[in-house]
Amino acid sequence: MVLEQFRLDGKAAVVTGSGTGLGEGMAIGLAEAGADIVGVYNRHFPETAKAAVEKLGRRFVPVQADLASIEAVPGIIETAVSELGRLDILVNDAGIIRRAPSLEYSEKDWDDVININLKSLFFLCQAAARQFMRQKSGGKIINIASLLSFQGGILIPPYTASKSGVRGLTQLLANEWAKHGINVNAIAPGYMATSNTEPLRKDPKRGPAILERIPAGRWGTPEDLRGAAVFLASAASDYVNGFTLAVDGGWLGR
Asked: Is 191 a catalytic residue?
């Protein structure tokens, strides 16, 4: 039955950025489909995700890590394997955004955004793929891209650069690793009601202008990504590789 292909029973997933927002929502969605979760967080302990996952009868292993550096990457994968016995799914959600006009943008803010959004993401993909190959099991990698993987935006130069890079990197890794049974795809969320977009939602001009342009007529929520995450993490997407799926309420089609 086709619905059985969406089940994740017995699977182990690492979800970065699981302490808040989209990462929290996807971690819970994967657990609802049957996966155990290693929830990676930095400042915000994932209390909501942990409680929700454990209520479902699944395991939730919290791991504190600062992904501004790649030093934490090996330990994340090692924890997944030691605690859950294996690794099947990686969701790279951790990311930051800093806003300033391009003429005023600082090197530090540029490096901070690129290091978390792109550099650590790549090395987590690399570490996960090595584990998948050791297991000879294949695996699923889901990178979180953005509408800014397709568009330029304003006032966020390294964010646009990093998310454009995520889309391209997703394609490249899919090309290299498909022969190992590893699927690398991405989700491009639209304008979501999270802490990252709070300044936009509060902006008396940009907030209403953005909302008016969304065909669905609302900002997205973390729950809106659960279905896409489960699909790309499951056997239902075994022949989907290198694709960036927009979950945007119709924004890109407008």
From this structure: no
